[in-house]
Write a structure and sequence with these properties.
- This protein is an all-alpha fold.
- The protein has one domain: MazG-like (Helix Hairpins), CATH 1.10.287.1080.
- The chain has 6 helices and no strands.
- The longest helix is centred in the middle third of the chain and has 21 residues.
- About 15% of the residues are buried.
Length: about 110
């Protein structure tokens, strides 16, 4: 199946499943397990690092590097979710709900509460 045949959600869901399966595995043989073994600090630090790297590449306007760093950022975000026992579907649900309103309306509704 090519990326065009597979939805973004399918790709991220599959990656999240793999990350979830790494919980409790040997940190010596799995990078993901090594991050999860030191949660929440290590996954959060890596997420912050990847965010910074993406921002640097965005400032440089290096699209190829931005693509690579974006992939790293998404992976590390999913690891942070897994460490916190957040179901990715809950995030997808919030995003779906937000599609029904403009970004300005959604932002205003959060600041009112």
């Amino acid at each position: 199946m090519t990326v065009s045949e597979q939805t973004t959600a399918d790709i991220l869901d599959k990656l999240y499943e793999v990350i979830q399966k790494r919980k409790g595995e040997d940190p010596e043989t799995s990078y993901t397990a090594s991050l999860l073994a030191k949660a929440p600090e290590k996954p959060v630090r890596k997420l912050s690092e990847e965010t910074t790297e993406l921002l640097i590449e965005a400032i440089r306007a290096d699209k190829d590097a931005m693509v690579q760093e974006s992939a790293d950022l998404l992976y590390h975000l999913l690891v942070v979710w897994a460490a916190a026992d957040i179901d990715a579907r809950a995030v997808w649900s919030v995003l779906k709900e937000r599609q029904a309103q403009s970004g300005l309306e959604e932002k205003a509704s959060r600041s009112e509460g």
